[in-house]
Amino acid sequence: MNWGIPDFLKKRLLFVTGKGGVGKSTVAIAMGIRAALEGRRVIVCEVASSENASRIFHQAAVGFKEVELANDLWAISIDPEDAMKEYVLFQLKVKAMRDLLFRSRIFTYFAAATPGLNELVTIGKIWELTQLDRKVKHGRKYDLVIVDAPATGHGISFLQTPRTFANIARVGPVHNQAMQLETMVTDAEQTGSVIVSLPEEMPVNETARLESELAGDIGLAVDRVIMNALYPDRFPAGDRRAIKRLVSSDDPDVRAGGRAALSQSRRVAAQNEQFDRLKDMVSAPISTLPFIFRPEVDLHAARRLAEELE
Ligand SMILES: Nc1ncnc2c1ncn2[C@@H]1O[C@H](COP(=O)(O)OP(=O)(O)OP(=O)(O)O)[C@@H](O)[C@H]1O
Ligand SMILES: [Mg+2]
């Protein structure tokens, strides 16, 4: 393992983004494990959990309450309804008013009728988690908050929510709070993002587009692109000719072995081609993670990925 904390894990808040299914949840956990191993107090937040529930979170039964997954590594799944209730709790000091609001259906109607409100309170909860002076009773202090953000399409509008609200409500508390969240998202000193990609054509294209949208439209720093699930290059160039000979062998077993080796080496070549494209298309530094040959990526496998992060 390359000990020493990777630079991009030194910020306070990191959004992990990328196309659907590229490994965002896995990488978010791996980053969390790594930062915790390096002595930082970390929490990994899952948002919109119904869409992207990660197996690791599911196994540990992570909900809206902060749960410890490992030493210094915590997790929370932010459900917008819970986040909204907590927000109202902090805003309305008068208990009778809160009870009235929770019991009436106005609340539910209001949330349903206001596009982006769920996203806004979710980002509000993320903000609360980054505070050293937590509003939540007995809330722990975290050095690093890692957000397993929604996949690209949703991710962009999710991150845009504070600005949208700040523009709609031009004055008043909503404006001020939305501005505060907007300032948090765009503060490159403390806040950044990681884009997860795969060595395939579409994810590489999407990564380049996402980088320009995040850095440009949203104003969120992109600290790292992670090329995930790279196959190991088992056959150096010299072996390829030998593989071709195996494929034309008279022995069927040797031929089968040769074909497997040929397919693997072609796969690696195709991945390398996409990796080269990525290098040309993005400006953030790139890290790589290996493909893990296991039926599923559990906490143990995520730890292996954590150690590979540089
Ligand atoms: N490096 C890797 N090696 C092998 N399998 C991996 C690797 N990274 C992720 N996976 C597997 O790929 C699948 C998708 O990963 P993951 O759930 O982390 O993606 P995601 O981007 O969060 O997806 P979604 O957009 O649905 O939330 C999972 O089955 C995961 O175990
Ligand atoms: Mg996910």
SSE blueprint and pairings:
Layout: E1 13-18, H1 24-37, E2 42-47, H2 49-52, H3 55-59, E3 67-70, E4 73-78, H4 80-91, H5 95-103, H6 106-113, H7 117-130, E5 144-148, H8 152-168, H9 172-186, E6 191-197, H10 201-218, E7 222-230, H11 237-247, H12 252-281, E8 286-290, H13 299-308
Parallel strand pairs: 1-5, 1-6, 2-4, 2-5, 6-7, 7-8
Antiparallel strand pairs: 3-4
Helix pairs in contact: 1-13, 4-7, 7-8, 7-9, 8-9, 8-10, 10-12, 11-12
The protein binds adenosine-5'-triphosphate and magnesium ion.
Adenosine-5'-triphosphate binds next to helix 1 and strand 7.
Low-confidence spans: none
In which range does the helix fraction lie? 40-55%
- What ligands are attached or bound here? adenosine-5'-triphosphate, magnesium ion
- CATH class (first level) name: Alpha Beta
CATH architecture: 3-Layer(aba) Sandwich
CATH topology (fold) name: Rossmann fold
According to CATH, the homologous superfamily is P-loop containing nucleotide triphosphate hydrolases
> What is the number of independent domains?
1
User: Taking Cα atoms only, what radius of gyration do you get, to the nearest Å?
Assistant: 22 Å
Write down the overall geometry.
elongated
Main pleated-sheet profile? 8 strands, mixed
Can you walk through the features of this model?
- This protein has 13 helices and eight strands.
- With 310 residues, the protein is of the alpha/beta class.
- The protein has one domain (7-233, 282-308): Rossmann fold (3-Layer(aba) Sandwich), CATH 3.40.50.
- Helix 4 (80-91) packs across helix 7 and helix 11 packs antiparallel against helix 12.
- The termini are close together.
- The structure holds adenosine-5'-triphosphate and magnesium ion.
- Residues 18, 20-26, 52, 54, 151, 228-229, 289, 291-292, 296-297, 305 line the site of adenosine-5'-triphosphate.
